[in-house]
Design brief:
By secondary structure, this protein is an all-alpha fold. The chain is 68% helix and 0% strand.
């Protein structure tokens, strides 16, 4: 028995190598059971999915596999694969990351966060927040209750941070990687689709985010004692009043340490506002945007974002002075820009860009190989499912799947299937693809579900059961709210009530391709 235990431990220590070498061999039957080109493409997709789920290779390295495997297996030529890694969607995401680096460089995020805490208050607060070591209480019972309250409040604070990050990221296209993957795959599958952009997405997702944040706040506050219905009638203990007063002082002191607002902070805030306004107003759909002043199709959100961030690399971080030109004794120091390229290199997560590119390459391979058509042909049993029911089922399945796997990998795998399912159901593809995309961010039950969950769990103050019991209702609320949004205000924003022309063209192309594949297969069988 001891030998078996030792063997299991050794296998666990080399599990990544086992998956790395064993997965390609285990998936060989896929190559033999499907039509040649579709089988080879599905082989690559399943291999990447296994590597992503098990992290046998770093996520970004796995995303590079199509560059090697697609040309060698005859799925796509190298020039078509490599071009997917630098689509305009990648540059839109890159512009958001660079803007975030500039905000972080000058501590603008910290100033805003502390200012918000000063405005909204610190209730409830605990002695931990005020670095108090001793607690005075009249009775041991009161002391025990206060300690329990303090522990619950601390858990509520910790668990609310990753949940808010996951929910808040859905509000904008650049907020989370799955949103951008949806945009990129829409451009690949449905090139004529132009209804999803920064402005239209914000109009749809921002109200959903606000409602979900409010309900999530209520649920966490009730669960962890931040809101106690009986507490409204009782007077606060002296311990709690003192803790809240000291917490306010700590926050005020940290804010004062930042000093007066610098010119660089003002400039970054100004450019951030211009960045957001230009993205929202480029093509808001309900009125002509400023992009209508240029040739159709020439200006995208990526052009807007990169235009603004380029300015950050030469705009001065110190207030310009005309007196300097006439003061011969003034120091001739080189002007420091708001953001240097070295800082951008250090802070921008470049691996995410590769991960996005891998997803777009995978989608292109599905389209060119005919795998998406083959998958669509296997979805006949789902054609009788009412679309509203399909939305709920899709959100539940993807939300559960992404509890155990990367949300980026999950949406890369599911989006081609959802696109084909929508065409089979004769509904707007966005009606299924948008819930699938947002559902990837609604993973709240496990520490491994999202990076924010993992960071909060690593603090050591949360247990798996804390996240599970809190996240179960959060998942349920997310599914129901998303279904409500898709069947109400999203219908008018994205014209979900009709089967669009751009999807009909794709469906016709798929039909002709499917017929061609069937003819090739039949002719091959006749020869045999």
């Amino acid at each position: 028995m001891a030998a078996l235990g030792a063997l299991v431990k050794k296998l666990w220590s080399v599990r990544r190598f086992v998956v790395l070498l064993g997965a390609p061999l285990a998936l060989v039957p896929v190559l033999l059971s499907l039509p040649p080109k579709e089988g080879r493409c599905l082989y690559v997709i399943l291999l990447m999915a296994l590597y992503w789920c098990t992290e046998a290779l770093p996520l970004a390295v796995t995303a590079l596999l199509p560059i090697v495997l697609f040309p060698f297996l005859g799925i796509l030529p190298s020039n078509k694969v490599c071009s997917q890694y630098f689509l305009d969607t990648n540059f839109l995401f890159l512009s958001g990351l660079i803007m975030a680096s500039a905000i972080e460089e000058w501590n603008l995020h910290r100033r805003i966060a502390l200012r918000v805490l000063m405005l909204v208050g610190v209730q409830p607060a605990s002695k931990d927040l005020t670095e108090e070591k001793e607690v005075t209480s009249d009775t041991l019972s009161d002391l025990k209750k206060e300690e329990e309250y303090k522990t619950n409040i601390w858990k509520g604070f910790l668990i609310s941070i990753p949940y808010a990050a996951s929910i808040g990221g859905t509000a904008t296209l650049t907020g989370t990687a799955p949103n951008l993957i949806l945009l990129g795959q829409l451009k690949s599958y449905f090139p004529e689709c132009d209804v999803v952009n920064f402005g239209s997405w914000f109009m749809f997702a921002f109200p959903l985010m606000l409602i979900f944040l409010l309900l999530g706040w209520l649920w966490i506050s009730v669960l962890y004692g931040g809101i106690n219905l009986r507490g409204w009638r009782t007077k606060k203990s002296n311990v709690r009043v003192d803790a809240e007063a000291r917490a306010r002082e700590v926050i005020k002191e940290d804010y004062q340490k930042l000093g007066p607002t610098k010119f660089a902070e003002q400039a970054i805030f100004f450019f951030f506002c211009i960045f957001a306004i230009m993205l929202f107003s480029r093509d808001p759909k309900f009125i002509p945007g400023w992009a209508s002043l240029f040739a159709p199709g020439f200006i995208s959100d990526a052009v807007t974002g990169i235009t603004i961030v380029i300015i950050l690399f030469f705009f001065p971080s110190q207030k310009p002075s005309f007196r300097w030109w006439f003061d011969l004794k003034a120091p001739n120091t080189e002007m420091q820009p708001l953001l240097t390229w070295r800082k951008a290199q250090e802070t921008v997560p470049w691996n995410i860009i590769l991960l996005l590119g891998g997803g777009f390459a995978m989608a292109k391979g599905c389209e060119e190989s005919g795998l998406s058509v083959w998958i669509g042909g296997r979805l006949h049993p789902l054609e009788g499912v009412p679309p509203p029911v399909a939305v709920i089922l899709i959100t539940i399945v993807i939300a559960l799947f992404t509890e155990f796997a990367s949300n980026t990998a999950t949406i890369i795998i599911f989006l081609p299937v959802l696109a084909e399912l929508a065409i089979r159901l004769k509904v707007n593809p966005l009606y299924l693809m948008i819930p699938g995309t947002i559902g990837c961010s609604y993973a709240f039950m496990l520490p491994v579900s999202t990076p924010p969950n993992s960071i909060a769990f690593s603090s050591g103050h949360l247990m798996v059961k804390d996240m599970a019991r809190t996240g179960l209702l959060m998942n349920l609320m997310g599914v129901l709210l998303l279904s409500l949004a898709m069947n109400t205000w999203a219908k008018s924003i994205f014209q979900l009530g009709t089967f669009p022309v751009w999807a009909n063209i794709h469906a016709q192309n798929d039909t002709s391709l499917s017929t061609a594949v069937e003819n090739v297969t039949l002719s091959a069988l006749n020869k045999i």
